[in-house]
Amino acid sequence: MYFSLPVWETLDSSIINERDEVIDAYNVYFDSWARLENFHITSTTDPQTILNGILTANYTQVVIRAEDWQNIQELIKDDPQTTALLSQKYEVVPEPKNLLILLKSSSP
Question: Are 22 and 35 in contact (CB under 8 A)?
Fold first, then answer.
């Protein structure tokens, strides 16, 4: 699980800023059993850094802000190889308010 910490700023949840609290909130929200060892939390909003992170590791899920996703799309718009790789690796699932993007691994 790759998790962008600025997600909480987007949700106006500034009281959640400890790694354990983020994981607990994720587990409640998604009815999941994620643990500390399978979470990578980043505070960056740099689209290249996020892109590198999610392409070089094998995450089953990635949660980022919709704004960060749009910035990544802008970054790779003229790069069909990276666009194809990202599409092959992840299924894009926007949340209803379009504040967050969940990228689910396409691999079983």
Answer: no
Higher-scoring residue by pLDDT: 98, 82: 82
**Among candidate residues 92, 37, 85, 42, the one with its CA nearest the CA of residue 70:** 92
- Residue range of the domain that includes 87: 2-105
**pTM over the 0.85 mark:** no
For 55, left (φ over 0), alpha (ψ -120 to 50), or beta?
alpha
Q: What digits encode the pLDDT tens for the residues 7-26?
A: 656 655 555 556 677 777 77
Residue 100 CA to residue 31 CA, distance in Å, equals 17
Q: Is 64 helix (H, G, I), strand (E, B) or coil?
A: strand
Least Cα distance to 50 among 10, 59, 13 occurs for 59
Rounded to whole angstroms, the Cα distance separating 24 from 21 reads 5
Domain count, the chain: 1
Q: What is each CA distance from 52 to 48, 49, 85, 108, in whole angstroms?
A: 6, 5, 12, 22
